[in-house]
């Protein structure tokens, strides 16, 4: 009889653990649905902003390098001709 009582207690404990697990799973699904969506959107937005700023800086550097190279080519061409760099 003592063994049956203990088995019944284990059965009740197991049912309670199963209920808690089900509730925790449902709660985590709700949190993921309500917080996860906006969190992903914020992360994607911030990534886009960072990438745009980084690309903007890179374009400025490329523009300056190209203009410097063009000026150097003009100067070299003008020096070969013997004239001023601007003509």
Computed CA radius of gyration, to the nearest angstrom: 35 Å
Counted beta strands: 0
Helix share bin: over 70%
Sheet-strand content, in percent, reads: under 5%
Low-confidence stretches: none
Main sheet specs: none
Distance between the termini: 111 Å
Helical stretch count?
1
Structural classification? mainly alpha
| SSE pattern | H
The outline comes out as: rod-shaped
Q: Return the average pLDDT rounded to an integer.
A: 87
Task: Give a quick set of tags describing it.
single chain; 92% helix; mainly alpha; 87 residues
Structural notes for this entry:
The protein has 87 residues and is mostly helical. Helix content is 92%, strand content 0%. The chain is rod-shaped, with a radius of gyration of 35 Å. The model has no long low-confidence stretch (mean pLDDT 87).
């Amino acid at each position: 009889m003592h063994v049956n009582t203990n088995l019944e207690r284990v059965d009740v404990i197991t049912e309670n653990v199963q209920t808690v697990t089900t509730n925790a799973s449902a709660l985590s699904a709700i949190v993921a649905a309500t917080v996860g969506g906006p969190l992903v959107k914020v992360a994607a937005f911030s990534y886009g902003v960072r990438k745009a700023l980084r690309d903007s800086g890179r374009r400025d550097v490329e523009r300056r390098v190209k203009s410097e190279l063009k000026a150097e080519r003009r100067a070299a061409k003008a020096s070969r001709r013997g004239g001023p760099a601007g003509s």
